[in-house]
Model the fold of this input.
Amino acid sequence: IGAAFLTLGGDRWDTVSVREGGVASAPTMSDEGFYNNKGGSPPLYPIPEPGGSRTIGADRSVIQTASLSLLVAKAEETARAVTDLVLSAGGFVESIDLREVSEGVKNGSMVVRVPEGKLRSTTETIKGLAIRVEHESLNSQDVTDQIIDLAARLTNLRASETQLRALLTRTGEIIDILEVARELTRTRDEIERYEAQLESVKSRVSYSIISVVLTSEPDTKVFGIHWRPL
Done:
């Protein structure tokens, strides 16, 4: 569906066609931009202003999820560095799982969440802590329709709750009172369930998830010389 904007300029009309939504697709790992280890062209996806909402197009709510697999000197030290970095960015650590794979060597993973406006900068800084970035990905999920649907359901349920409460005060028969009370309880349960779902989706939009896999590079000493086997 196209919209045409006509502006009068001198003796002629200029026509500009606009595609619906004007939405650019999220970058893949083949794109030069967000995850280009060797530098190159600027990112291909929209970069929000600091503190702004991560949206694609007009009023689009998008969940951003980044994934990194890093080769690091020591997994436990890198995990502490990532934790400090995330906290300073206004985020939080969701989980950390480190395990010893050999004597003095630990591997593991962690999941952190940062404000969506700081996803790019935080991810790039985390990559800077690694000896080598072995894998990286960025996924986007548009949840605009889901948020609109949940909000509409809540509006209808709250209207029903108001009507049921009014009916409860006017009902005289015990059997009718019990029936209205049961329906009111069911409606209230649905309202709380949809409220929780809506809050969860909005939280995932506001705070992007970064999953990090940490693999320690072996440091072996042979004849007094430190070496790192491939």
Observations:
- The radius of gyration is 26 Å.
- Strands lie at 2-9, 12-19, 62-72, 92-102, 105-115, 132-142, 207-216, 220-222, 225-227.
